[in-house]
Amino acid sequence: MIKILLTEIIGYILFLFFVYVEDPIAVAGVMAAFIVAVVFLKKKCGELVKDLEKAYADNLGQVGIIAVVLAVTMPFSLMGDAYWLQVLNFSILYAIMALGLNFMTGRAGMICLGYAAFIAIGAYTVGILTLKAGISFWLALPLAGLFASIFGVILGLPALRVKGHYLALVTIAFGLIVQQLLLNLENITGGTNGLINIPSPHFMGIDMGANLDFGFMSLSYQANFYYLCLLILAITTILIYRFSNSLFGLALNAMREDQLAAQCYGMNITRYKLLAFAIGAFFGGISGGLYAAMINFIAPENFGYSMSILVISMIILGGLDSIPGAIIGAFFLTIFPEKFRAFEDYRVMFYGIIIVLCLLFMREGLLPFKHRIFKPSIPKGEN
Amino acid sequence: MSGEVFFQQFLNALGLGIMYALIAVGFTLFFGVIEVVNFAHGEVFMMGAFVALIVSGILVAAGFTMGSLPLFVAVLVAVLIAGGIIGVLLEKFIVRPMRGAPDIMTLLITLGISIVMREAVMLLVPNGRNPQPFPNLMDLDSIQIGGVLIKPEAILSIVLSAILIGGLAYIIEKTTFGRYIRATAQDREAAMMMGINVKKVFIVTLALGSALGAVAGLMNGLSYGIIKFDMGFAASIKGFAAAVVGGLGNVYGAIAGGLLLGFLEILVVSVIPDGSSYQDIVSFIIVIMCLVFRPAGIFGERAYEKV
After folding, report:
1. How far is A381 from A375, CA to CA, in rounded Å?
2. Residue A173 with chain B: CB contacts under 8 Å
3. With an 8 Å Cβ cutoff, is B113 touching chain A?
4. What are the helix and strand counts (H, E) for chain A?
5. What ipTM did this prediction achieve?
């Protein structure tokens, strides 16, 4: 408990330091020092690191609760700064996307290079429903997820017959087709101009597009979305965790390792594949819907191929099939480049380099997937 | 559609198709021999065009006349060599370290390096974000056939591509090294046991395929007169799609697939009103259909999974 609390607070302080120190060189220096320290600790004090890993693995509930409590205080620590809250919002949205994609690509082993299409479908669902049909955001958001799921199943149908490289091609094509359709169906989607003035949602009479006033401190309106996104990220993480550790998740792993063998053991591959696509797409749609309500403006070029690649690089960096990895990867790749806006031109290249270096030298990612250890559960009272 | 327009569109389709074929041949070679799908191949295509642009600039500064035959030949050779070198580098630093890794990893690393290549060109070429005008490397008079005015670049591209593809086919079918390549494609272990230097075969395959891809980039610059740093992505997708339609691993299938895709696209553009905005959608839907109903391609043999 103490160990977890301490390490998470260290992470929290490091993040605040990262935010408040202006000089990019100082930030880079501290980051480098931090990485060196971690590597050093892993080399020299293996026991300590192992201890920590065990503490984290054994007390997932505590880890989550402490992280959420710390995260709730974050807008106050940031003094309600609009810019950094927005950055955090984006990283949370990307974390939700990365979790969804990780379920498809990491857990079920079906590569998807058109994930941005699901995000786009979610965003446009919320945009069109709230803007043109006047439906409440709170109804539109689940519909966005549902709609994306339906498209996920549609994409899953060809995926039943193809895999590997072919699936990569099909998913890229799917992403491009959706983007082209958004561009061409002008009377519904607004074409290149996109949808503007998507209304901000209201929550119990509070306009989420207005600043959050606490009397002693006024938080910019991004804080509203911060708490909403945080809640949804927490729910997503729990759901994905439960899915992954269920028999269904295990079956997806089996299917990833050897589809034929899994089939021979009597698994209904069709059902599992479609379900994996539907679940992965659902979270893409939800994050897209949140994005639309938060930014109030969406256009097809926001959901291009590069977004799919970005989400892929997040899960590669974090480690395929690793739930904490997906979240950490999303946060790192969204927050880290913000401090180096002077090098904005190199941003996309940075993502490419991350993918290449990770795959060459660190194939398992930052937080590699841990195989589960079978623990026989002993019912209470028997023993 | 009048005869003249038809002829014009036919030539357009042939030019587009043969360009796709040149790219697809690379994809199919890499897959057949090395068993990788190299998503960086489209960026090799893009870099071929940029190498041509830069080399021609240097040569003109060195005293060659723009539009003369020596300049064109020099640029062509430079592009072939540059493509080959990029291919060798890709093999050494990207494909080889990933041998034995799951397919998905190899695919992703070529995707990653393709991003790096694209961005590097954008950042290194002056004003690289914007489309670059491509010089008219070969001054030719317009040709008139039966009252139809034809862009000479189109003919040049088609003839040159046909020669290159023919050359590749000759290397693969008739030379000793071509036999090595075919043997490696058929059974890597058996080829090694027969004393074939498989490593060398891999390097040469990537060099050959990449050289052809780079020349396709040059053709693209010649026919459209404009090049851009991000044109590699579309080339990758179309080339890969053409290779898949023809059956991955089958060189002749790739050529047929490229031509088919080119003709289909021009057909969509010219027959359907407002077709150009649906050009990509139609070709992708056809590719997906093809994958679903004939996963081994139209010329591929049906494959059974080995257990």
Report:
1. 17
2. 237, 241, 284-285, 287-288
3. yes
4. 16, 6
5. 0.85
Name the closest residue on chain A to residue B98, using Cα atoms.
A360
Q: Give the chain A residue nearest B114 (alpha carbons).
A: A352
Q: What whole-number distance in Å separates Cα of residue A103 and Cα of residue A93?
A: 16
- Asked if residue A375 is part of any domain, the answer here is no
* Number of residues assigned to chain B: 307
Distance CA A141, CA B79 (A): 52
Q: How many C-beta atoms lie closer than 10 Å to residue B172's C-beta?
A: 22
Full DSSP string of A336-371: GGGGGGGGGGGHHHHHHHHHHHHHHH-TT-SSPPPP
Longest Cα–Cα distance in chain B: 63
* pTM, 2 dp: 0.88
User: A240 and A122, same structural domain?
Assistant: yes
CA–CA distance, A285 with B257 (Å, rounded to integer): 35
What's the gap in Å between the CA of B289 and the closest CA on chain A? 8
**Nearest of B295, B227, B232 to residue B57 by alpha carbon:** B227
- Beta strand pairing call for A206-207 and B148-150: unpaired
The verdict on A142 and A84 lying in the same domain is yes
Percent of chain A with pLDDT over 70: 96
DSSP secondary structure letter of residue B91: I
Q: Which of A47, A77, A107 is the last residue of a domain?
A: A77
For chain A, the domain total comes to 2
Q: How close does chain B come to A6, measured CA to CA in Å?
A: 36
The amino acid present at B238, given as its one-letter code, is: K
Q: In this structure, are A118 and A134 located in the same domain? A: yes
Q: What is the pLDDT of residues A39-54, one digit of tens each?
A: 887 777 777 777 877 7
A28 and A119 inside one domain: no
CB atoms within 10 A of CB B110: 25
